[in-house]
Design a protein that fits this description.
Claudins function as major constituents of the tight junction complexes that regulate the permeability of epithelia. One of its GO terms (molecular function) is structural molecule activity. Keywords: Cell junction, Cell membrane, Membrane, Signal, Tight junction, Transmembrane, Transmembrane helix. Its main location: other. The protein is of the alpha+beta class. β3 and β4 form a beta hairpin. The chain is elongated and about 60 Å long.
């Protein structure tokens, strides 16, 4: 029962990780540049994401432009696009597989098949967490290096946006969920190996002797 509750807790973490992973991939605020002029009316906030760049004005207007050209983008943005999409796909596969392999569900067949499915789903979550952690770390490193570069003007410097923090948190949720799923299945299999079921063997000679004794009593 404790293992089933732990798997359910890991499944909830994985759901938060999947939703956060998808949100971080689609949000346009991976890096933010707040440019405030002398007048409050001219204050604007520029946001850049993986798929579009958006500008929000203090007057309430909001405009976005899509990044159509892939080859013109920097390498870290191209890599972030690929790895974040892979992270979303793997985490979605992990949700489907662990739904079959969890103890609290009636899918997946016997206990061995459910254990294998649960372990495979945990591996999907771990890979999804790694694929989500790599681009967010790389993207943050680029933002910090450009921010500390003295040759870049202040108006061109950016700070990490909410999408980066969402990606970090989602990757952590997926990694924790994957480790819980894998270790729960491993502990159950290891217990079966260490403590095999006891089998009682009765010598055939003893049974034959008892059978012969009983037959003599009826003669």
């Amino acid at each position: 029962m404790a293992s089933a509750s732990l798997q359910f807790f890991a499944f909830i973490l994985a759901l938060f990780g999947v939703f956060g992973d998808i949100a971080a991939t689609l949000l346009p605020n991976w890096k933010v540049n707040a440019d405030v002029g002398s007048n409050i009316i001219t204050a604007i906030t520029q946001m850049q994401g993986l798929w579009m760049d958006c500008t929000w004005y203090s007057t309430g207007m909001f405009s976005c432009t899509l990044k159509y050209s892939i080859l013109s983008l920097p390498v870290y943005i191209q890599a972030a696009r690929t790895t974040m999409v892979l992270s979303c796909i793997l985490s979605a596969f992990g949700i489907c597989i662990t739904t079959v392999g969890m103890k609290c569900t009636k899918l997946g067949g016997d206990s061995d098949s459910k254990s294998h499915a649960c372990f495979a789903g945990g591996l999907c979550f771990i890979l999804a967490g790694i694929f989500g952690l790599v681009p967010t770390s790389w993207y943050t490193r680029e933002i910090i290096s450009n921010f500390l570069d003295q040759t870049i003007p202040e108006s061109s410097k950016h700070e990490p946006g909410a999408a980066v923090y969402t990606g970090f948190i989602s990757a952590g949720f997926l990694l924790i969920a994957g480790v819980i799923f894998c270790t729960s299945c491993f502990k159950r299999q290891q217990g079966a190996w260490i403590y095999p079921p006891k089998q009682h063997h009765f010598p055939s000679t003893e049974q034959e002797s008892n059978a012969g004794y009983n037959l003599k009593d009826y003669v």
